[in-house]
Each structure stands twice: as structure tokens, then as C-alpha cells.
Specification:
2 domains, three-stranded mixed sheet, homotetramer, alpha/beta, Rossmann fold, 9 strands, N-(1-d-carboxylethyl)-l-norvaline Dehydrogenase, domain 2
Chain lengths: 290, 290, 290, 290
């Protein structure tokens, strides 16, 4: 199939490569043109100007926020052909996705929100989890393409549902990480080494992805590799809070987590890695998780 | 070894049996005497009055709170012999344990706090995780006994450290469960079935014991089996909040969780199962996790 | 001056009367027409269909939310004449007001957001505080009209600023009231009569409008008169949280207050009086403020 | 009457002077002896060693926390005479006060907790509010002395009630101040000068001691005079949270405020003035209240 790909960031770059390697013709576009040319040279995709992406049967967008997606959709709108499929892998906002879907629907273009989870490692390996919102028939058309980039591809509901699930997932990650930081710092200050505490927590009911993966592999050794920016997690948590608000669920915990990550992004900068958020609690505690 | 066991509740009953089956002579005592006699008949342990427990070389206590432990220690104090080992499996309070340890130390009795995790199923199977605080030499003496009731026995620090780790574990469980409830209810209201959402979360970074075990097996099917009382989790969360307070760690999240479980225990009663806490959020949302 | 008035609710009814009594010709419109006719009969105003309001030089709107204002503006838009002044006394949303202002500006109509504070008593007496956002020249034109309905008329900033200040005011009210309820209930349970506690607080640094006015006059005597619906306060608090979000101020307290009033409105119903929110804390505490 | 006074800090110094000026014989004691001698020289009181304070008929203590009060009581206990009255003006803890009262009661000494409100200005002028807990008969004996240091002297309940009311008062102050800081910073960032916003709030329902006194007189002019240390307010808020906990009132707001002031004291130091807490929010917002 002829596939368009807009956005060659840390996630988009390997995902577009995987589509090409699955046998598709891939037209890549990036705001910084040189990046698209480099991708073309490296993997045999084709670097094209934005309007040329409209020639594809299916168009992927993989951008920082729904704002950029909306802008790109507006720019391409006059060029799009009826029957085209638009698949948005951005970690976007349900409400904005619904507005974008409506815009595209006026041109006979179906929209799916299809954010992914699994990090750059999962993107490289093609083992991402993909949570998809949109029309079931459109989902069935997109499935072979999505299975080229991810291993667990799940249709979760109508347009916006993919983005909602992604935002909730990341808010839970943020909540579980912050709670673990508070608890572990207290234990360290009471004389319990964090490694021992984690050994027990992870054999017990307090365990989470944060205690099993993030803290042992990134905090205890103080490596804090940059894999996902704090500014982006703070944005996802804002979307998560919007989702619970929109649904009318009183959610004191989601909202506290929202504010904690806003202030963490203020204190540490948007460019820090998301796991560095624990450094805010470390600063308050006057101790490190170790 | 001659071992004393005080407290034959849902956890203590099978743990005392496992000690007996590991070849020890076990003297059991329970406030309701008939329960001790039933245990003796069923497993060949020996039901004794409280003072007779002092004849044991090692004494286990497994009671609702540190208050009851302190009362039993006071009552037995005149009868205790130097060199006895006291092992407290209660989910108790670090501060109170330190006070109890000091009382016992005046009689030449070593104290270990050794709370367990793994529920009644783990207690039956002898596969509990045991987190132990206290003197390392005393821990080594206790280890064979603890390995008769648990599979993962970890010495985490000085007296009180076991109780601190247990309280933090349970507060994390409480936090992760409540956060998941808020997020899932919003998704359900937006048209995403909770089972699908959990499938994605559990393949992603938002996962926790709450999303992997509790909600799929107890909430989705509305079974809510009574395995651990909400009133006891609310107590553990109070202890968890005391631990972070005592350590001087500013902890907005732990304290919000504390208050949420206090109000849940008020609304649903102390006798409800701990997982029923999600029903408070369900009530606010006007929807069920399903 | 010929003045239009849209919305004859608890606040709008006496405000329109005061405009008439200040010597203006007042065209009143209300969705339920009978209400407008009753106003005309009682005070000598003129009940008119919506389009006829466009004949006024200045148009007031006083509606439940910005949604209704936007709808009315759309409906009237084709009829509006250049140079008209639109004054919106609704407790609305800054963002939506900016959008409305832009729509009106396309027709040469200036928009001011001018929410009021002081309750129905202040509306009757013409002693309301009025916080106004918008162009300074438009404000000067509106001032004589606003001084007919309020005593303290303050221009606080550009379009939306009036609504922002109103929302912040009401969120502070909500925060101060809830905090007072928590503290007073604890004191009552410790044997301190609430009236005595208030006497001390109100002579000290803990005092607020909530402790000086609302609790003594509405809670202690259990009268809870319906003067301002809980559902409307919950809405204002949502707007307040939007304001701090939009401004990029990490605000854990505003967001907790937001969630507490959402759940209060769920538990007590939107039609309860706003001061009844304390009943939620009373329910949790198992005690009344008395 | 012969009166003893222990503790000549910022509050104790002028209060002891006022007692002397009301015609009492005042024996002053201070840990730093030179301070007591200076007081004696300035006002004609008598500087004495600790034990000599036991000769007084009524003994005042005015110390940083209940810990110091308990230590002084233990030290004086062997010297105290039956029938002596002990009046503690410390901002102390209800629980500890009950323990101290019991110790003193064994020697026939009555204890009143009598914390004050009104700042150093009120202490100088003798216009403090005094909230008193303890036996009504003891209160009647103390009343003439208390009226020499304060204008509003209220008996609020049994021993501990005075401290509980003081702690609640200060927690409300802390809550109202923080909420105002969040809201005002958002308004400033939206283009509303803080002074204008305060003018409106203080004519409306959002007003509190924080918006009427503290922010206009100490924040807008950036003077932040040191009148009450942040570390002491953080301690009072901890006591306030203990009070609601002890009373069994689920209190999400009190507990969030508690954690916010703990982190503020960490960030700004215990020696900062309490009103400087707003600087934490200013730092998060990247803007000042002005």
C-alpha cells in the first residue's frame, strides 16, 4: 500500500522504517526537511513535500500534540482524496481528535486515533501496544498497517477513545511513580535501603511498572536516561485530567497528580526525562532514593 | 523448637499450622479460647492460657494492631525468660514497635517486627513475603521459623523497619487502586469497556498490582470477596502517612490517599473488603467499572 | 438610554428593575415569556421578543453560563447595530467570553464581561460589586449603567478578566468554606461548641467570609436558605480551575477544591444551596457543625 | 498576685510586661538568663532561676512547642506547691497538653492551655485573643490574669481545647493564604493587577484575613516583615492535621495544606516569615503577586 508518514521524531522515525520493511511504499514528510531526506537514504522511503502526502491511501501523523495534527490536517485538506484513511499516532486529546475527525469526514476521509505505548525500544522492535479509537470498519482497514508497527493492537472505542486510554495510562504511570517516590524516600530516611524495599514491594501488592521497571533501572543507578520528556508526560497528565473532567468523574487523585507534574516540569524543565520527577520529592525530603 | 503463637485470625490460623507441620511444638493462645482448642484438635498444636506461652523459646504475635500487641506484652512481661525471641507478624506501627522492643529488651527478650504480605492464600500455602525489622543476630535465629511460614523472607532494617515497609506497600496499593478507579470510570463513561482498557494498561506503563490482579478478578465480575477488611487497609494507610511524616518527607499524595480511605471506610463501613473502596468513586461517577 | 435585558433570574430580575428605576427605558426578554411580562407589569419595563432587544443601545445578558450567552449572541447577531454595547453579567468563562467578544466585534459591537457579587440581597439593594473586563472606552460608556445596579464597579482588565476575577473569588469562597468545615467539625468532636470556636476564629487570623457570615447565619441554625445553587458554585469552581490552568500556575489547592465541589454536587444535587456542601464533611465526620 | 513567667520570646516579653503593669509581682525566667535580667531592668520584674518560679501562685509558660513545656514541668515538678495554677500560652498540642495536665494534677496543680492570637502587635497592646482549655473553676481563677494580656478571653472547652482551636485557626489562615496565592497569581498572569483583584475580592465573598490584611500589607509591597516564622506555622498546621485526625474527620484539604507548608518550610527555611510561603507558588508560576 502507498502510505504517508508525517513526523519523524524519536517514535515516528523507527515506526516509518518498520512500515517500509513490511513491504509498503512510504512517503515521509518532516518539518525539518533534512530529516526526511536522511530517512529516505537510510531506508528507501521517499521524502516528499507536505501536499504530496495526499497521494497516499493511508496517512500517519506522529506529532508532539493535537495542535500540530490539526494544523497539518488544515494544510492538507484541499488535497485529500475521498476514501483516504488518516491514522494519528500522536498522544493527543480526545476532544480535539473528535473535531479533527469531523473536519476530515467532510472530505470523505476516515480518522483513527492510534497512540502507542512501549517507548523508543518498542518502536524500534515493532512491539508497541497500539490503542485505537474510531469507526470499526476503518480500524479493520488499518489493522495490517498497525500490526507492522506494534504487537498488541486493540480497538478500544469511538474516535478519541485511543487518546483517552493513552492519557489515562500515562496518568496512572505518573501517579504510581510519585507515590512510590514518597514512600521509598521515607523508608530510606528510616534506614531501609531502597533496593531492599523494592524487592519486598515487588513481591507484594504495592508493585507497579514504576517500582518494577523505572526505579530499579533508572533511579537507583542515577542514570535517568532521556527516553520520554517530562514536558510531554506533564502534557499527557493534563489530558488525563481533562478526560476525567469531561466524563464527570470527581477525581481528587488525578488532579493532584496533574498539579504535581506541572510543578515538576516548572522546576526541572520540560526537557528533563519524565522519571526525573522523583527529584522534586528528593529535594523536599533532603535525601535520595538509593 | 517450642514456639508460642498468639492470635489465630485469618492469617494466624494457617501460619501456626505451617509452623507445626514444619516440625515445631506449637503452643497456641487466642482471646476466644474455643478457637485455640479447635486449632489444637485440627493440627495437633497445644491450646494454652496466656502465661503458659512464656514457656516457649520463640513467641509469635499476630494481632489486629500494635495496641493489642503492647497489651499482651505487658501481661506476659513478668513471665518472660531471658533469651526468648518475640516475633510480631501484626501490621503494626514502627513507633509503637520501638517502644515494645524497649520494654522487652529490659527483660532480655529480643523483638522483631515481621509483617507479612500475600493474603490468606499465601498464608495457607506458606508462600508469604515477610519483611523483618530488628537486630541482625535475632533475625538469623528467627529465619528458620519465618521460612516455615513464608517464601521470601527479607531483613529490611532496624526495629520498626518491617512495619514501615508493610505500611508503605499497602499505601501504594491503596494509591494505585484509587487512581485506577478514577481513570477507568472516565474511560467507561467515554465508551471504553473496562476490560479492554485494562488489557491495554496491563501491556503498558500504567500497570500495577491493582490493574493486573484486583480489578480484573474482583471488580469486573462484581465478586468483591472479603479477603482484607477496608478498615484494616485504612489503618495501614494511616500508618503509612505516619511513616512519611515521621521521616519528614512532604507527601501530598500519601496524605490525600489517607483521607480518601478514611472517608471510604466511613461510607462503606470498616467491615467491607478493601477493594470495595472503588465503589466510592463509582458512586461519585454514577457509573460502574465494567 | 434604551437598554435591553436578557435573563430575568434571581439576580437579573432586581437588576433590570434598578436600571428602570434609574431612569432608563428597559426592554426585557426571558426564555419563559410570562416572566418578562410580569416584570413589565410590575416595574414598567417592556417585554419584547429576542430580536427586538437589538433596538437597544446597550444590551445586558444575565444567564446561567457562557453557553447560553453564546447562543443568544448568535441568534441576535444578524440584528445587531454597529456601536451597540454588550454587557454580560453572567458568571461566565474567560475563554468563551473572548470568543464571544470576537464574534461581536465583527459587527462593531463592544463586549464587556461584568459579573457581579453580593447575592440577591445586593441585587435588590443595588449594592453589588461589579468586576468588569474589556476595552477601557467601552467601560467608561457602561459605567453609568453599571452604577445603577452596583456600588463598587471596578475595571479589572481586558475581556475575560471580569469572569476570571469572579471565578477566583468564588473558588476562594469554596476553599475557605470547606477548610472551615473540616476544622470546626474536629473541634465540635473534641468538645468545643462551634459558636465559641467561631467567636475566636473571627477575632483571629483564621477568619474569612465563610466563618464570619455563612456558617454563623446559615449553618449553626441549620437554615441553609437557598440563595445560590451548589451546582452553580461547582461550575464557578470549575472555571476557577480553568483560569489557573490557563495561566500556567501549578495549583494543587484549587484543583482539590474543584474535585470536592464536584463530588458534593453529585452527592447533594445541583439544586442544593452552596453552603450545604458542608453537609458532605458532616456526613464523613458523623457529626454536625453546631 | 505573685506570678511566674517562663519564656521571654517575641510574644512572652511584652505579655510579661503587661502583667507587671497590671499590678502583679512577676518572676521571670528565660533559658538565656541575660534576657530575663534585661526584662527585670526594663520593667521592674524579677529575674529568677527556674526553681524559684515555683514560689508563684500562678505560672505562665510561653515556649516554642509542647516539648519544652513538658521538660520545664518535669524540672519544676518536685518544687511545685498544691493549689498552684499553670497557664500555658504556647501554641502546643492538645494530646501533649492532656499528658502534662495529668502530671501536674498529681501534684495538685491545675493546668490551662491558653494560646493567644494577635501577633506581637497584639501582645504589646494587650489586645490578644486568648482561647482557653481546662477546668471552668481554674479558668475563673485565671481570668483576671488573662485579661491583663488579652482583650478577648474565651473558655472553649476541656484541657487541650485551647490548643486545638489555635491549631485550627492557624491551619485556616494557612489554607486561605495559599488558595489566595494560587488565584491571584493566575489573575496577574491574565493581566489583572493584584491590587485591583484584592479590591474586588475584599468587597465580595472570597475575602479572608489573608486577602484583607496579609497580602495587601506584606506581599504587594514585598516587605514580608518577620512577625511569625514559617517553621512555627508549619508546626501549627501539623498540629491542626493531628486534631482533625484525632477527631476522625476525613479532611483532604487540611492534609494537603499540611504538606504544602512542610515543603514550603523545606524550600524557604524555617526562619522565613510565614507569609513568604506565597513565594513557593510564585516560583512555580514564574510570576509575582503585584
Amino acid at each position: 500500500m502507498r502510505v504517508g508518514w508525517i513526523g519523524l521524531g524519536a517514535m515516528g522515525w523507527p515506526m516509518a522504517k518498520n512500515l517500509k520493511e513490511a513491504g509498503h511504499e512510504v512517503l515521509v514528510h518532516n518539518r525539518t526537511e533534512a530529516k526526511a531526506r536522511a530517512h529516505a537514504e537510510a531506508y528507501g522511503t521517499r521524502a516528499v513535500p507536505l501536499e504530496a502526502v495526499a497521494e497516499a491511501e493511508a496517512i500517519f501523523s506522529c506529532l508532539p500534540t493535537s495542535e500540530e495534527v490539526a494544523a497539518v490536517v488544515e494544510a492538507l485538506l484541499p488535497h485529500l482524496r475521498e476514501g483516504t484513511l488518516w491514522i494519528d499516532c500522536t498522544s493527543g486529546e480526545p476532544e480535539k481528535s473528535r473535531a479533527i475527525a469531523e473536519r476530515l469526514s467532510g472530505r470523505g476521509v476516515a480518522f483513527l486515533d492510534a497512540p502507542v505505548s512501549g517507548g523508543t525500544a518498542g518502536a524500534e522492535a515493532g512491539t508497541l501496544a497500539v490503542m485505537v479509537g474510531g469507526d470499526p470498519a476503518a480500524f479493520e482497514r488499518a489493522r495490517p498497517l498497525l500490526e507492522a508497527v506494534g504487537r498488541r493492537v486493540v480497538h478500544v472505542g469511538p474516535v478519541g477513545a485511543g487518546h483517552a486510554v493513552k492519557a489515562v495510562n500515562n496518568t496512572l504511570l505518573a501517579a504510581n511513580l510519585w507515590a512510590a517516590a514518597e514512600g521509598l524516600l521515607a523508608l530510606v530516611k528510616e534506614g531501609v535501603p531502597a533496593g531492599l524495599a523494592l524487592e519486598v514491594l515487588n513481591a507484594s501488592s504495592g508493585r507497579s511498572f514504576a517500582t518494577e521497571e523505572l526505579i530499579p533501572n533508572r533511579v537507583l543507578d542515577r542514570s535517568f536516561p532521556l527516553t520520554f520528556k517530562l514536558g510531554l508526560l506533564a502534557k499527557d497528565v493534563r489530558i488525563g485530567a481533562r478526560v476525567v473532567e469531561g466524563a464527570g468523574v470527581p477525581s481528587p487523585l488525578f488532579h493532584l497528580v496533574r498539579e504535581l507534574y506541572q510543578l515538576a516540569a516548572r522546576e526541572l524543565g520540560e526537557e528533563a526525562d519524565h522519571v526525573e520527577a522523583v527529584k522534586v520529592v528528593e529535594g523536599w525530603a533532603g535525601e535520595a532514593i538509593r
